[in-house]
Design goal:
alpha/beta; TIM Barrel; 8-stranded parallel beta barrel; two-stranded antiparallel sheet
């Protein structure tokens, strides 16, 4: 087993939750596991406990709440009572308290909550903060696919998340990158408190990765593959401390862990962000 590296988080979105994946992750030193109440048809927690309950103490486990079973497959809610119940249910189903519970895509419900959306977010954050204070989870955070709507809703008197998870990588638009940076600053998040997700925009085998060469973002451009370079660059778009990435193949996970040895050329990253901003400005209204 390699030494633990907290910069890679094994995400279970679209995963089959196979035991071999978790043992393979541990062998690679990946000891952070991220799931959600709604993964695998709202069965992720129970299946993890059933197939790998003995392995879970070897991981730091994060999960997400906010989506609930509904008539059309799922519904989103920021109701504080439902959120508190969901944290308790997650602990029961996993057979242990989660190390971290994310409020999952709060913007999903906030878009329809105006003009009281700031109060809705504040009450949801207070519910998770209360759960952490009572030991139902060790800490809480916010995972946001589109963080832009959150910027105007931050209440300085409300509890502050310990971790923010946002989209990261070369396929993230400049509006999302700027919104993520603004949230990081507003919440004064420190080292280890910002995670990225979806570094390949859905799939490392998507055609886009054959058309571009992300190795231009690395100082030693010939040492890593295109997939590895894209993964390594994701830690700088925006700047994050860890990246949650999904796979069902330990070999692919190993390739990504190997990418961490690459050194990113920060100047190229900044030039890329400037190009994105220029392109956005030049688009017709």
């Amino acid at each position: 087993m390699r030494g633990a590296d907290a910069r890679v988080v094994l995400g279970l979105h679209r995963s089959r939750h196979e035991r071999r994946l978790l043992t393979g992750a541990l062998d690679l030193g990946v000891t952070a596991l991220d799931t959600s109440t709604n993964y695998l048809g709202f069965h992720s927690h129970r299946i993890l406990a059933r197939t790998a309950g003995d392995l879970l103490p070897m991981f730091t486990v994060s999960t997400k709440i906010g989506y609930f079973p509904g008539r059309n497959g799922g519904e989103h809610s920021l109701n504080p009572v439902r959120l508190r119940t969901a944290v308790e249910q997650a602990a029961d189903d996993l057979g242990r308290e989660p190390d971290l519970v994310f409020l999952h895509n709060p913007e999903h419900s906030l878009r329809g909550a105006a003009p009281h959306d700031r109060d809705v977010l504040a009450r949801a954050c207070a519910a998770l903060d209360d759960a952490a204070a009572k030991g139902v989870c060790a800490a809480w955070g916010i995972a946001s696919w589109d963080p832009s709507p959150l910027l105007d809703l931050i209440d300085p008197t409300s509890p502050r998340p310990s971790v923010l998870m946002v989209r990261a990588g070369l396929l993230v638009g400049v509006r999302t990158l700027d919104a993520s940076d603004a949230l990081i600053k507003a919440w004064n998040l420190r080292d280890g408190a910002v995670w990225g997700m979806s570094p390949f925009g859905g799939s490392a085998s998507a055609p886009v990765w054959a058309r571009i060469d992300p190795r231009v973002f690395l100082r030693d451009s010939g040492r890593l593959s295109r997939v590895q370079a894209a993964f390594r660059a994701a830690y700088h778009l925006p700047r994050v401390d860890a990246v949650a990435v999904g796979t069902d193949e330990p070999a692919h996970l190993g390739e990504l862990v190997g990418a961490l040895t690459g050194e990113v050329e920060e100047r190229t990253i900044q030039e890329y962000r400037s190009l994105l901003r220029t392109r956005l400005r030049d688009q017709p209204a």
